[in-house]
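Lab meeting minutes (informal)
Scribe: AK
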Amino acid sequence: MSILIENINLTVDEQVYLKDISLNFESGTTNIFLGRTLAGKTSLLRIMAGLDRPDSGRIIVNGEDVTGMVVRKRNISMVYQQFINYPSFTIYNNIASPLKISGMEKKKIDRRVREIAEMLHLETMLDRMPTELSGGQQQRCAIARALVKDSTLLLLDEPLVNLDYKLREELQIDLQDIFKERDAVVVYTTTEPGEVAVSTAMNNLAKEQDKILMRIQRAGVQGDKGPLLNPEKDESYWLNQPGAPKAKLANEKPQGETVDYDKLLQTWKAK
């Protein structure tokens, strides 16, 4: 699956929320929007989900323009900052609700719910009500409901912002492992640089390096055809260049005279 965001613009009450945003996403990738509050992260996620329409620009999924497509026709899941669960449903029924709406048979629903619950450490809480759970557990429930669908696009809008530091740290680790197992486009927004996993950043850097090397290879810039950015030279060549540091001699002593600090201070005060 590929998602192309093409020249998205959004203005609300004469304030520019998004301007000429163009991005490309591929299946199996975790993409992080890091920015301050009111930077436009949520606005972009809502447009990707089909909840809002941009003033101009397109959302293209697998070559099809879905900019005006209603949410119910899109295979997406979204997790919000707040703990959004059905208060009158048990945790089991909260997680199972998207599958019941889709018409999946009961046995498959049960198997899928228990798999996701175990993944998010909720297997012992399935008979409880949301109000009987802690904040972190309620957010795990909301995330489980989003994951149970096997959506091709998973949007998480600062899902850990309302949790305390310890719970946030635990969920960061759990989510990283879960995202690795899914062949979906995951888009995660945050205002906290600490939530950007080092492993994710390094993976993205490695992918970018691979792309650069592939472009160089396609362009034929290799072997003796490539530019010599730092040609090998004899050591004496560099030492003889203007401004080059001079080699330090074994018996070299500091140049100039040493001035006593107290005398220097008295001279300065006398002026």
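Next up, CB showed the second protein from the same session:
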Amino acid sequence: MIEQFEEAEKRILREALRLGYEVGFSGLDESAGWIRARYTRLVSEALPLGIAQNVIEKYKAGKEFGKRNRLFSSLPSDSGILNHKGKIQGIATPTTIVESSLPKGVSVARVPVKDAIQAVANMIRLAQGSEILMDRVSTVISNVADIHDRLAELKPDEGDRASVLTEGLTILSDIGWLESYDIVDIDVEHRSVRIDAVSQIARAVGTSSEPVCRPICIALESIGNKLFNQPVIVAERSCISQGDEKCRFIFFPRPQSD
């Protein structure tokens, strides 16, 4: 069992290093959906093992190493710098460099717009021919819009972050997504928060082999952005649908393009 844990830790840290290197070397926009999804998955896998912070640090180290290699590779071959030593084993060097077209400080979407439109289109196709299903699709979209409107009212307050978080969680309770919640701790320096909550979504879903409160995670990310005035990602570590007493949500820094 110990060996399995050790192998899992090595794999997760290795993947975080590789992802960071790929982002750093290629100059990729970290707001891209696939990057964010891989980063979130790695940190989520790391949480039960207690190595989430290690994953974040490995990702950053890999990104910095990739950026250095990108700078070196752009220099003339006779500069002598191209013969630098040190490669991350198992990482293929990307052949293209993709620069972000977005200016720094601009808020970006969680997923590519085309993907979002296609997902909505697929939902509508599935619901066509069923008045009940089409009504459910409209209900979901309307509910998300209501939540967005309420959360947009939140104002950052660096002097009283706890009140910002409490206000946001109260909104989620008012709209019926959370029955109750407890703020376990807030770590401003690491943009980390732990929340235990009774999720009405989990109760409605029933038994599941994996966490089901992704909609709540996304709403909490919006709250976290206001809380720290910087982007965060939220993962669900335990879930009522899996038999846990409460759902636990963990905030951690979202990778940002430099």
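CB comment: The mean pLDDT is 79.
No objections, moving on.
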